[in-house]
């Protein structure tokens, strides 16, 4: 065996909700006809051995491991075999802190025996990728403006809490107001606004009869104003606000796009469909922007000349840096949240048909498929919601798993079928020649014999003989001697 798998080690640090991209490189193989089975494992500090995530057999069949089943990874896994043949990728979408661990691949090399049975020739384990998933650094920032107010009784005071920045537009905020009373060391809650925008009174509101005098409004995103009406002397104190920011868990993402991979094989000039199914959404008021992409390996020809080690160096990701996406994306068609169509991609122009079958199901049909359409496709969905000011903003986005489409070339289908099967190849291109030669020789021999026979059965000038010469008899009159019969050759055999 000449099987060699890359042993280089990597360290990958990323924040939650980002994809974990893992690569497995076969540096050398025994035969160009080798097939590979790839098994992906993760090792946690608390485990003695690695746990199986995913297995792809030498025949490209998928099998989920126990770890994927237990941790609910099935909907977040994406496997890809690159065009080079020796590079395999596994992507864990929407990473969580619990996904941290040491990842590696186990490669098995399979060959086809002379009796057309597959057997495992060798196996080898790759180097490990240490993955650390952390929560994002908080970018929450509040206005620190301070001031002293002197208000006459029965007037109204305004307490403003302004959020200048937040970590994510999808985060939820909990706002709470406190007051420190003179000669009272502990703060007391006046009111708070929960993450689901529910207003609650605090213990101070019950003491000073504030329930009927509090009023809350939010004129814009991140601006919260608390009004105390008909103020009294006992309302004096030092007021402040506190804000908590809550991010959605990657596993609890509201927007989910169907990740089933319905690979399809179609004939040339036929049509194939690319469905985009939205499984769940954040709100009934959501609108969606949908785009379909063709996924191609970026710089496939150029990258093919690089060594495996150089490719791995390019794919190294350090802390705080984003990995470069090796996939080139070409847009087929995009539809905005306002139902405005974008331009069609030039290779597919005039061959696309869009359908909205339901509020959560979109379909793109590609007509008159040609072999150049073979590849992977995906749909990208953006969820848009209206703000309190009736302005639409993008809440989140999600992309489906790749859909593999293969378009058969009718002109080369028979040739590829014959060449892909050794028995059929010999039957078509080897065995007919000796059989045909033997048949020709047999026909010539039969014709030659029949020709000689016809010549012998003909007389002078080709006239058939009707009479046969009698043989000559020599008789001796002597009785003592027996008669002698002498037969002379006649005209025919």
From TrEMBL:
Q: Identify the stretch(es) annotated as Disordered.
A: 303-327
Claim: Nucleotide-binding is one of the keywords in the record: no
InterPro entries, alphabetized: Ig-like_dom, Ig-like_dom_sf, Ig-like_fold, Ig_sub, Ig_V-set, IgSF_V-set/TM_domain
| UniProt keyword GTP-binding present | no
* Transmembrane domains' residue ranges: 423-446
Task: Tell me the keywords, alphabetical order.
Answer: Disulfide bond, Immunoglobulin domain, Membrane, Signal, Transmembrane, Transmembrane helix
SMART domains, A to Z: IG, IGv
Entry GO CC:
membrane
SUPFAM superfamilies reported in the protein's UniProt record: Immunoglobulin
Q: Where is the composition biased (Acidic residues)?
A: 309-325
List residues of the Ig-like domain: 1-126, 136-267
Q: Which Pfam families match?
A: V-set
Superkingdom, taxonomy of origin: Eukaryota
Which protein, by its recorded name, is this?
A: Ig-like domain-containing protein
Q: Which organism is it from?
A: Neotoma lepida
Q: What is the lineage of its organism?
A: Eukaryota, Metazoa, Chordata, Craniata, Vertebrata
């Amino acid at each position: 065996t000449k099987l060699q798998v890359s042993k280089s080690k990597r360290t990958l640090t990323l924040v939650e909700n980002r994809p974990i991209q893992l690569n497995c490189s076969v540096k050398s193989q025994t035969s160009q006809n080798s097939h590979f089975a790839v098994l992906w494992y993760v090792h946690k500090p608390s485990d003695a051995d690695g746990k199986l995530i995913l297995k792809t057999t030498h025949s490209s069949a998928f099998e989920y491991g126990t770890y994927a089943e237990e941790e609910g990874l099935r909907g977040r896994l994406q496997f890809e075999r690159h065009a080079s043949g020796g590079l395999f990728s596994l992507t864990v979408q929407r990473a969580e802190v619990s996904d941290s661990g040491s990842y590696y691949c186990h490669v098995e090399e399979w060959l086809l025996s002379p009796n057309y049975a597959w057997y495992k020739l060798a196996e080898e384990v790759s180097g490990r990728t240490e993955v650390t998933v952390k929560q994002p650094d908080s970018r929450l920032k509040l206005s620190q403006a301070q001031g002293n107010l002197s208000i006459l009784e029965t007037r109204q005071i305004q307490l403003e809490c302004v959020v200048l920045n937040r970590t994510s537009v999808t985060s939820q905020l909990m706002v709470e107001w406190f007051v420190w009373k003179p000669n009272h060391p502990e703060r007391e809650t006046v009111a708070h606004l929960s993450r689901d925008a529910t207003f609650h009174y605090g213990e101070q509101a019950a003491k000073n009869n504030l329930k009927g005098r509090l009023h809350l409004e939010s004129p814009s995103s991140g601006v919260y104003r608390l009004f105390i009406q008909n103020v009294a002397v006992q309302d004096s104190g030092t007021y402040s606000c506190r804000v908590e920011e809550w991010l959605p868990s990657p596993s609890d993402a509201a927007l989910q796009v169907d990740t089933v991979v319905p690979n399809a094989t179609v004939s040339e000039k036929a049509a194939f469909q690319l469905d985009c199914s939205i499984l769940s959404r954040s709100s009934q008021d959501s609108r969606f922007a949908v785009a379909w992409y063709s996924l191609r390996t970026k710089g496939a020809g150029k990258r093919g000349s690089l060594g495996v080690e150089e490719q791995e160096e390019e794919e190294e990701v350090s802390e705080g840096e984003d990995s470069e996406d090796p996939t080139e994306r070409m847009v087929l068609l995009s539809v905005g949240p306002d139902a405005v169509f974008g331009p069609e991609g030039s290779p597919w122009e005039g061959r696309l048909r869009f359908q909205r079958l339901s509020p959560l199901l979109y379909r793109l049909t590609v007509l008159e498929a040609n072999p150049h359409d073979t590849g992977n496709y995906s749909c990208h969905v953006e969820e848009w919601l209206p703000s309190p000011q009736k302005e639409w903003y993008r809440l989140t986005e999600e992309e489906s798993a790749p859909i593999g489409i293969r378009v058969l070339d009718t002109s080369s289908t028979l040739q590829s079928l014959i060449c892909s099967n050794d028995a059929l190849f010999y039957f078509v291109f080897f065995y007919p020649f000796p059989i045909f030669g033997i048949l020709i020789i047999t026909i010539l021999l039969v014709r030659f014999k029949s020709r000689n026979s016809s010549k012998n059965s003909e007389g002078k000038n080709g006239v058939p003989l009707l009479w046969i010469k009698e043989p000559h008899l020599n008789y001796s009159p002597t009785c003592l001697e027996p008669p002698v019969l002498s037969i002379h050759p006649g005209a025919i055999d």
